[in-house]
Design a protein that fits this description.
It comes from Pan troglodytes. One of its GO terms (molecular function) is oxidoreductase activity. One of its GO terms (biological process) is fatty acid biosynthetic process. Keywords: Fatty acid biosynthesis, Fatty acid metabolism, Lipid biosynthesis, Lipid metabolism, Membrane, Transmembrane, Transmembrane helix. This protein is an all-alpha fold. It has a domain of about 90 residues. It has six helices and two strands. It has a two-stranded parallel ribbon. Helix 6 links the parallel strand 1 and strand 2. Helix 2 packs antiparallel against helix 3. The protein is elongated and about 70 Å long.
């Protein structure tokens, strides 16, 4: 990917970042090696299983509340709170599966990503992948990052905004 200037170049290639601090780079490499030795980069499958189960449990509890108590104000309010929590949690869970960061094979990540985003969130995985790839290509860059374009400029924080020139 030399032509795109993405990532680190080979050691024999010149660096295109004149302000790159070699000591800082070496410290980050050492930190990454330490983190990997500690096993912090490996996903805990039990955690993600419990994460999915709690989402399904809250989803079932919300619908059961409406079925048992009807649609009066308090059951409706409780159901809304439960389903809001379910949607937020399912969004982050599908994000982890979408990044293929839970299982060692992409097959299981894709399968669960499709289940969570398709059945629990009600959106196609292909749409999320397309939008998220654009976000990672130009993160926080107005008119290029779809995550930023969904929000008005009024809510942007900071004095200097990242823009494509």
């Amino acid at each position: 990917m030399n032509s795109l200037l993405i990532g680190e170049l080979s050691p024999e290639q010149p660096s295109f970042e004149p302000t790159k601090n070699k000591e800082l780079t070496d410290e980050f490499r050492e930190l990454r090696a330490t983190v990997e030795r500690m096993g912090l980069m490996k996903a805990n499958h039990v955690f993600f299983l419990l994460y999915l189960l709690h989402i399904l449990l809250l989803d079932g509890a919300a619908w059961l509340t409406l079925w048992v108590f009807g649609t009066s104000f308090l059951p409706f309010l409780l159901c809304a709170v439960l389903l809001s929590a379910v949607q937020a949690q399912a969004g982050w869970l599908q994000h982890d599966f979408g990044h293929l960061s839970v299982f060692s094979t992409s097959k299981w990540n894709h399968l669960l990503h499709h289940f969570v985003i398709g059945h629990l969130k009600g959106a196609p995985a292909s749409w999320w992948n397309h939008m998220h790839f654009q976000h990672h290509a130009k993160p926080n860059c107005f008119r290029k990052d779809p995550d930023i374009n969904m929000h008005p400029f009024f809510f942007a924080l900071g004095k200097i905004l990242s823009v494509e020139v």
